[in-house]
Amino acid sequence: MPEGSGEVDLDDGTAEFHAENICAVFDAFTVPNSISPDRPLGFVSGRIDSVEIKWRGVTKSFMGVHDATNHFSGDFLQIGMVTIAVTATTPKTTGHGFRFVSDPATTKVNYAEIGRERNGVFFS
Amino acid sequence: MNDEKSISWKKLQEKWLTRRNLIRGAAGTAAGAGLVLGSGLRLSALADDEDEGKHNKCKALARPIPHITGPGHFFFPGPPDGSAPSTFPHFPFAGFDPSTITDFKGVIAQADLDFDGMGTSLETGQSVPYHFHTDWRFFKGTFVAIDGLEHRGTQTFI
Predict the structure, then answer these.
(1) Buried b (16+ CB within 10 A) or exposed e, A80-97
(2) A39 — contact with chain B (CB < 8 Å)?
């Protein structure tokens, strides 16, 4: 993603992600197609015109997490308020022209967090 | 015993069926629309590598975390410290690493969301409401790519 597309401010308990024109999006049409190596993946025909996600509102802190089983560590903040604004299109030239525009006000958070992490060879 | 490894296929499919609704929406609705994205397929967009051009012209590809949930290298969203109760969905008896890439150090953000919107057929102009579920994440920092070199960049997981 372009530089600056994602920013996390742990002191402020906020994060933002913004991107435009994420192209070459697969549509596998069915779940088995997308997870089975012996089935076709479908067509690269869609794009995300734009997406903006904003995180704010710390509800819980996880400081000094050290998971020796899965080799990751860091400081994390559970977030209670997130909005997503996304517009996506399948071009009309595919014969299945479609556009989706989200309503950010309807966003319901199931789980969200931001954090600073080290894993794999950087795990300590 | 790692309960996540024994997660039922049906439960996994239900989860992924939900995820695939991200932007594609419900195929076969009145709109007859077929947009596209997610579809249960995990996309990890390529890094914007600041070193690109110094080593080669290809984008650096990060490696996935070793942990496997069903067919993929990821944890479902959840507390990272192992504090989740056993009733928590996809309880792994461990912390949920929000990163899907390994050999990484940096900042992360993750959001498992439900939201609504309007889908419009570009063929007929007909619009209908859609409901979606997404697990969207991004990782910004330093990672060791499959070329064995350290790179800096931002990657997203849709």
Answers:
(1) eebbbbbbbbbbeebebb
(2) no
